[in-house]
Specification:
With 185 residues, the protein is α+β, with helices and mostly antiparallel strands. It has 7 helices and 5 strands; from the N terminus they run H-E-E-H-H-E-E-H-E-H-H-H. Strands 2-1-4 form a 3-stranded antiparallel beta sheet. Strands 3-5 form a two-stranded parallel ribbon. Helix 1 (2-32) runs antiparallel to helix 3 (91-97) and helix 4 (113-122) packs parallel to helix 6 (145-158). It is globular, with a radius of gyration of 16 Å.
């Protein structure tokens, strides 16, 4: 059932937001010279796929996890796109293709060995990665592989249609995402 909602929301999102996509691509082309960012990530069953995002950093930035990059490399427009989570919108294409879900563990990079090891222990790779999930709502980033994997496991164990919609709602409209949201399951 969740896959059906993923497909429906991805199609509607891509169609309705296509004028916004065009505008962002044009502005980013002027800003960075390269509006779309693609990167290899690990998906369900450890299958490697290419994730797409709007570029928020200088085009010459190294291909590493966001928490390892100097924040000064994020462009002013990139800060705005990140703040409103607009940089993630091209991932609707990944959702439509079946590489990702709207809700699931964030896909890690192929070189994030500590995260891969922790996720393998907990069976996280049995699920489709997502654009958002419990870790994003609680601001758990990839700098703490154990905590991230445990949070992903908690999310996957409780995932239902209700929780799926709740995480999407909290991602879009939630205020003060953070650790005070400990009751979220």
């Amino acid at each position: 059932m969740i896959r059906l909602f993923d497909i429906l929301f991805a199609i509607v999102g891509l169609l309705l937001l296509s004028p916004v996509f065009v505008l962002i691509v044009l502005v980013l082309f002027i800003d960075t010279g390269s509006p779309i960012f693609s990167q290899k990530r690990i998906g369900r069953n450890r299958v490697i796929f290419t994730v797409f995002k709007f570029r928020t950093m200088d085009a010459r930035t190294k291909d590493v996890a966001t928490h390892l990059v100097d924040p000064s490399l994020v462009t002013p427009l990139g800060k705005c796109l990140r703040r409103f989570k607009v940089d993630e919108l091209p991932q609707l294409w990944n959702v439509l293709k079946g590489d990702m879900s709207l809700v699931g563990p964030r896909p890690c990079l192929t070189n994030q060995r500590d995260i891969i090891k922790e996720r393998e222990k907990l069976g996280i790779f049995d699920a489709l990665p997502g654009i958002t999930g419990l870790a994003q709502i609680k601001n758990v980033d990839m700098s703490d592989p154990r905590k991230l994997s445990m949070t992903d496991k908690q999310m996957l164990e409780s995932l239902s249609i209700y929780i799926y919609f709740r995480y999407i709602f909290l991602t879009l409209f939630g205020k003060g995402h953070g650790d005070h949201l400990n009751d979220i399951k």
